[in-house]
Design a protein that fits this description.
This protein is mainly beta and 324 residues long. It has 2 helices and 21 strands. It has a 5-stranded mixed beta sheet, with no helix packed on it. A 4-stranded antiparallel beta sheet has the order 6-7-8-9, with no helix packed on it. Strands 10-11-12-13 form a 4-stranded antiparallel beta sheet, with no helix packed on it.
Length: 324
């Protein structure tokens, strides 16, 4: 697709035309849709409130907050939490939280997030709740799950998935032995007392362990696992890319389009570097009025590798996600 054809132009086109304009090969990816304002973000998560406002939260700053009324212009307006909970310092002396995941269930907003240090798996996933979802309104509920230096996994990058049967699941993980999933209690938002199993969803058994940031959604009878592969956080040297697989159960097994298991380094590329858009990842999937939105950050090659907000719509034509 033409790099100058942006999301606002796409929304006025018939579906058949949009599909025809999608990338024709696995090596071609669309540029991000147009966004303006304060869009220097890392690990974004977005939710649309019933009044039409978009809430965006991201890594750093007690979970940075931005809002938008049109999904294009974003304004920075504080943090989810006004001060760091006391337990954060056990995992991050800098009190620097990462990778939030915002959702709305049971009449309240929930935000799962990670506290850790770069390169460490002495980590914890926390939960905060709010009645409005707005910055400063969140109340921390403490630790949901944690890992230590002796663990073979890393408890960061949480993603809540609520299935149609009412079961709650939390996917998480970074490097080490890959992506995990635990079952949660819908009443508390924390690990289920009678189901404490930790399932493995994706891993890279040989070579690099660079795999993190899961997102799970259910579409057209399949469960899809998205994850960020390879390395982030290195500006224009970042090699992040977004891959996906699908399964018939939320706990897997997940396979890519070629039938390779995601527990064996499988994954079909959904988005990778192209031009000045370098290392897209840290993704979230948000259903909106015009379809599913792929939310991510990338490193801007035209701005010294500054991390920027990326937004693209997704098509599920043929049973696999394609960004456009």
């Amino acid at each position: 697709m033409s790099r100058t054809l942006r999301r606002s132009s796409f929304l006025a086109l018939p579906t058949a035309v949009m599909l025809a304009l999608m990338p024709s090969s696995a090596s071609a990816y669309p540029g991000p849709g147009r966004v303006t304002g304060d869009v220097v973000v890392h690990d974004p998560t977005v939710l649309r409130k019933s009044d039409g406002r978009y809430l965006l939260y991201s890594t750093h700053g007690y979970l940075e907050s931005r809002t938008s009324t049109d999904r294009t212009a974003f304004s920075r307006n504080g943090n989810a939490l006004s001060s760091p909970p006391s337990w954060w310092s056990r995992y991050s002396p800098e009190n620097d939280p990462w990778a939030p995941d915002i959702s709305y269930h049971g009449g309240r907003y929930l935000m799962y997030y990670a506290v850790s240090r770069f390169g460490s798996n002495t980590s914890a996933i926390g939960l905060a709740t709010s009645s409005t979802g707005l910055p400063g309104s969140w109340s921390d509920q403490g630790i949901v799950h944690s890992s230590t230096s002796s663990s073979d996994y890393n408890a960061i990058d949480p993603d809540l998935f609520v299935d149609s049967d009412g079961k709650w699941w939390l996917a998480f993980g970074s490097w080490w032995s890959g992506i995990k999933m635990i079952r949660l209690d819908p009443g508390t938002g924390k690990q289920h007392a009678s189901d404490t199993a930790r399932r493995s969803l994706a891993s890279r058994p040989t070579g690099t362990k660079a795999l993190e940031g899961p997102t799970v959604v259910k579409r057209n009878g399949y469960y899809y696992l998205f994850a960020s592969y390879d390395t982030c956080c290195s500006g224009t040297s970042s090699t992040y890319k977004i891959k996906a697989g699908r399964a018939t159960s939320p706990t897997g097994p997940y396979y890519d389009r070629n039938g390779v298991a995601m527990t064996n380094n499988g994954g079909t590329v959904v988005m990778a570097s192209q031009g000045s858009v370098i290392g897209p990842g840290g993704q979230d999937i948000m259903p909106d009025v015009d379809g599913d939105l792929l939310v991510y950050h990338y490193y801007d090659g035209n701005d010294a590798g500054t991390p920027k907000l990326g937004l693209n719509l997704l098509s599920w034509s043929g049973g696999w996600p394609t960004a456009y």
